UniProtKB/TrEMBL annotation:
GO terms for molecular function: dipeptidyl-peptidase activity. Gene3D superfamilies: alpha/beta hydrolase. This is Peptidase. It comes from the Bacteria. One of its GO terms (biological process) is proteolysis. It comes from Marinifilum breve. The keyword Ribosomal protein does not apply. InterPro entries: AB_hydrolase_fold, Peptidase_S37. Keywords: Hydrolase, Protease, Signal. Residues 1-20 form the signal peptide.
Length: 430
């Protein structure tokens, strides 16, 4: 072999090595780092996943006006394999957990978890409330989903719980083609600022015997308020609570909230309710166990101010009925949640968004599977599909706000799984 041939062979060898290096598949971390405006960190978290990442997306405050500024949005990625489906846990608040959700386990899927704008790690530097609405939040989620869809090509499913369920609905309303299927859990669809359907629910839910016992307990608390107030004062001091509306009104609100909380969480049995002739200390101990005063504490409220802003301006809330207790409390009208913003003008509610979303749910929405608990207070304002057969709604008998697919009776659970299999065009083995 002459020198020229030897050089050519050596050159070809070097080129082949270089070519092999160029065609080497990118790792997941390398692919994530190619996404524009994203910082990526591999972290140790839910060990059921092969890899786990914390991402921060740079999001515009106003997706229609990039000049308005930006903020960082926290997103978690639990990775099994590129070829597996992707579930997206759309949060209505901050990210509560780094663990796999029910659907991710059910489908053996990868999972994205998206924190909602204006909560915890996804908080803009300046809280300009005009950028906190369902349209801007949906655009955040759309940007994240579209970025990751370039990597994950299998089926996509969005899901969320409570306000996360609402947020899942709103995202799908604005971006119906982002994903294949959506599964909102226990998501209210309020139509007005203080939806009166809550009151109707509390007047009819469960048995009359239990409802009467709840009412008699609330009545006993109001009748004994003079003795409950010192207990509430001591309790607040021990816990470090402070109330913008004052101690007495905070106690009134806790008593009024009791019926809502009782049915929402379902953790208390009717036989556990103290009799109306119980001592004040027994009444108070039970009250704060079911309807804690921290719900009205200024410090406890701060992480959820964004929720209350949305509730009072766009997505709706509930009020407390004062009429049944009029002889014992001095309020002319039902009590609302305006106390959350004590030094600010009353927030004005615009029903336009909820009207449009509601109409869409009843006409054009498709492949959305809604999960509810029958006794959950928020089921009072559950979605009404009317004649829309492209979606399905399942109500767990006597279920509460913690209702999940696994809690349904066997026959209903099988129907839910069958529906998901048909919509996703894949078998579900778990």
């Amino acid at each position: 072999m002459n020198k020229l041939s030897s050089k050519i062979i050596s050159l070809l060898f070097v080129l082949s090595i270089g070519l092999a290096a160029c065609t080497q598949p990118l790792t997941l971390e390398e692919k994530l780092n190619q996404i524009p405006d994203v910082t990526v960190q591999k972290i140790t978290s839910d060990t059921t996943y092969a890899e786990y990442y914390e991402l921060y997306f740079t999001q515009p405050l106003d997706h229609e006006n990039p000049e308005a500024g930006t903020f960082k949005q926290r997103v978690l990625l639990g990775h099994h394999a590129i070829e597996k489906p992707m579930t997206v846990e759309i949060q209505g608040y901050n990210i509560w957990t780094e663990k796999a959700g029910e659907l991710s386990k059910l489908l053996n899927a990868n999972q994205l978890t998206i924190e909602h704008r204006y909560f915890k790690n996804s908080m803009p530097d300046s809280l300009d409330w005009k950028y906190l609405n369902i349209k801007q939040a949906a655009a955040d989620q759309h940007k994240v989903i579209q970025a990751l869809k370039k990597i994950y090509k299998n089926k996509w499913i969005t899901t969320g719980i409570s306000k996360g369920g609402q947020t899942t609905i709103y995202h799908r309303f604005f971006y119906p083609n982002d994903v294949d299927v959506s599964v909102p859990y226990v998501a209210p669809q309020n139509l007005v600022r203080e939806d009166k359907r809550i009151h109707k629910h509390l007047a009819t839910v469960g048995s009359k015997e239990c409802r009467d016992k709840i009412y008699q307990f609330q009545l006993a608390c109001f009748k004994n308020k003079k003795d409950l107030l010192p207990l509430a004062k001591t309790h607040a001091e021990q816990k470090g609570y402070s109330f913008s509306m004052g101690l007495e009104k905070a106690l009134d609100l806790s008593i009024l909230e009791y019926s809502f909380a009782f049915w929402q969480w379902g953790g208390t049995k009717c036989e556990d309710i103290p009799s109306s002739d119980s001592e004040a200390s027994i009444l108070f101990k039970h009250l704060v166990r079911v309807s804690g005063m921290d719900f009205f504490d200024e410090i406890s409220l701060k992480p959820s101010l964004a929720f209350y802003h949305q509730a009072l301006t766009e997505i709706g809330m509930y009020s407390y009925e004062v009429e049944p207790f009029k002889p014992y409390i001095q309020y002319e009208n039902d009590l609302t949640f305006d106390h959350v913003f004590p030094n600010e003008p009353i927030r004005q509610f615009n029903p336009e968004s909820m009207i449009k979303v509601n109409k869409w749910i009843q006409t054009d929405a498709e492949k959305m599977l809604f999960i509810y608990g029958e006794w959950d207070t928020w089921s009072a304002t559950a979605v009404d599909l009317k004649d829309n057969t492209k979606c399905k709604k399942f109500v767990n008998p006597e279920g509460a706000h913690g209702t999940r697919i696994r809690h349904f009776p066997a026959e209903m659970k099988s129907e839910i799984i069958k529906t998901l299999e048909e919509w996703l065009e894949m078998p579900i083995e778990n």
